[in-house]
Structure to design on (410 residues):
C-alpha cells in the first residue's frame, strides 16, 4: 500500500492533476463554497445572538473578524453563564423571545433541542434576523415547507450547521469531485453510529427530547456526505429498522420502535446510496462517508479523522485468492490535509475545532455569507435536501421497507 503525502499522489501520471487541485490551489478549488481569502476586507460587523448553552457554546463567533457576540440566551441560568464566559459577552436573555426583541441583534444561532428548530427559526426570521440553525432543519415535511416559504418571503440568510459538510475528508472529496477524479460516482455510503444514546434519554429523572428519537429523523450527518459533494438529490427510499423489547424504548413520544435504521436511497442521477443511523449495538462511534467512482473511490477513515484510503482503477491484471484473473486496482493511503490550517479561513480561525475541524468553517461560512450578501453553502435548499429524506425514510421503515418518493424542495 502506497502512502499519499499531504494530498499529492505518488504516481507520476497523477502528480500534475492532484498537485494543482489540492494544496497548490486549496482555495480556488472550492469556489463558490468558501469566500476567497483575497476578497478585500470589509468593516461590517455582524451582531449575533447565541441561543442554546450546550452545542451553542462550541463555536467561534467571538474570534471572527466580522462578528460581535451581542447577547446569549438559554432557559437555564447555568448555561447562560457558560455562554457569557465562552463568548466574553455581558448581555444575556432568559428566552429566545426576549433576545429577538433586541434591535442590535442582526443574526441568531439556534442551538436548541431538535424538535424546536423549525419553530425557533420561523420566529427568528419573522423578527428580521438572519439564522444559523443546528441540525436537522425540521422534524416534519410540513415544517420543511414552512421554512422554505419563510426564507423566501423574508429574503434573509438561512444556513444549517451541518458538520459533515466541513469535515476535512469531505472537503477533500469536494475537491476530488470538482476536478473529475472520481469519474462517474455510481454509489456511496454513509454511517452515523452513536451507541449509548440512551444515556441522553433522561436528565434529572425527566425525559429529554432524545427519548426514543427515530434515527432517521437525525439523518443529516449522513445524507450531507453525498449531497454536499455531488449536488444530487435523494428521490426515492426504502428503509428498515431494528428494535428490541427494551423498556427504554417504551412510551416514547415518537411511538418509535427502532434503535437503528438503514435506508437505501436512489438519487435523481440514479446513484445508489446506503445510509445507516444507529443508536445501539457493537458499533464504532463514527460519522463517515464513502464515495465510489469508475475512476477513483475515496473511503473516509473509520475513526472520523486521520488517514483515509484512495482506490484507483487500473488495467493491470492480477489474480484473486482463488487464482482467477482480475483487475489489480491501486490502493493508496491518503494523508489527510488539515484544511483549517490554510487560507480557506481567516487567520484567527485557523485552529482545530469540533467535529473534525468543522466548527470554524461553519462559523466563517455563515458570517461571510451575511457580510458579502451571498447564499451560504448550506442554504435552505441544501438544508431541506439533507433533512427531508430522513423523514420519509423513517415512514418507510415503519411500513416495513415500502419504497416511497421523496418530495423536492428546490
Amino acid at each position: 500500500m502506497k502512502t499519499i503525502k499531504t494530498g499529492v499522489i505518488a504516481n507520476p501520471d497523477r502528480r500534475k492533476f492532484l498537485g494543482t487541485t489540492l494544496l497548490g490551489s486549496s482555495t480556488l478549488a472550492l469556489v463558490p463554497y468558501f469566500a476567497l481569502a483575497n476578497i478585500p476586507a470589509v468593516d461590517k460587523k455582524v451582531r449575533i445572538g447565541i441561543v442554546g448553552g450546550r452545542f451553542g457554546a462550541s463555536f467561534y463567533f467571538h474570534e471572527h473578524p466580522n462578528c460581535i457576540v451581542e447577547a446569549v440566551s438559554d432557559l437555564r441560568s447555568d448555561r447562560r453563564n457558560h455562554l457569557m464566559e465562552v463568548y466574553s459577552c455581558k448581555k444575556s436573555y432568559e428566552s429566545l423571545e426576549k433576545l429577538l426583541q433586541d434591535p442590535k441583534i442582526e443574526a441568531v444561532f439556534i442551538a436548541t433541542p431538535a424538535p424546536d428548530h423549525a419553530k425557533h427559526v420561523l420566529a427568528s426570521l419573522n423578527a428580521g434576523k438572519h439564522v444559523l440553525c443546528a441540525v436537522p432543519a425540521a422534524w416534519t415535511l410540513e415544517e420543511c415547507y414552512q421554512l422554505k416559504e419563510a426564507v423566501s418571503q423574508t429574503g434573509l440568510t438561512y444556513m444549517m450547521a451541518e458538520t459533515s459538510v466541513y469535515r476535512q475528508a469531505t472537503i477533500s472529496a469536494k475537491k476530488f469531485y470538482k476536478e473529475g477524479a472520481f469519474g462517474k460516482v455510481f454509489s456511496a455510503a454513509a454511517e452515523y453510529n452513536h451507541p449509548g444514546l440512551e444515556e441522553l434519554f433522561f436528565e434529572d429523572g425527566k425525559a429529554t427530547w432524545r427519548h426514543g428519537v427515530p434515527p432517521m429523523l437525525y439523518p443529516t450527518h449522513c445524507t450531507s456526505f453525498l449531497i454536499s459533494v455531488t449536488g444530487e438529490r435523494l428521490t426515492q427510499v426504502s428503509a428498515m429498522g431494528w428494535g428490541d423489547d427494551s423498556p427504554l424504548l417504551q412510551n416514547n413520544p415518537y411511538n418509535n420502535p427502532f434503535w437503528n435504521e438503514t435506508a437505501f436511497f436512489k438519487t435523481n442521477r440514479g446513484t445508489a446510496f446506503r445510509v445507516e443511523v444507529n443508536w445501539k449495538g457493537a458499533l464504532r462511534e463514527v460519522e463517515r462517508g464513502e464515495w465510489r467512482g469508475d475512476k477513483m473511490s475515496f473511503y473516509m477513515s473509520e475513526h472520523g479523522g486521520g488517514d483515509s484510503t484512495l482506490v484507483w482503477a487500473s488495467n493491470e491484471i492480477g489474480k484473486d485468492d482463488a487464482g482467477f484473473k482480475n483487475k489489480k486496482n491501486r490502493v493508496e493511503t491518503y494523508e489527510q490535509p488539515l484544511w483549517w490550517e490554510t487560507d480557506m479561513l481567516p487567520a484567527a480561525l485557523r485552529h482545530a475545532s469540533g467535529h473534525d475541524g468543522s466548527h470554524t468553517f461553519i462559523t466563517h461560512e455563515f458570517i461571510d455569507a451575511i457580510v458579502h450578501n451571498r447564499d451560504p453553502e448550506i442554504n435552505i435548499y441544501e438544508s431541506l435536501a439533507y433533512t427531508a429524506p430522513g423523514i420519509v425514510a423513517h415512514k418507510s421503515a415503519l411500513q416495513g421497507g415500502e419504497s416511497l418518493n421523496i418530495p423536492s424542495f428546490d
About this structure: The radius of gyration is 22 Å. Confidence is low (pLDDT under 50) at residues 1-40.
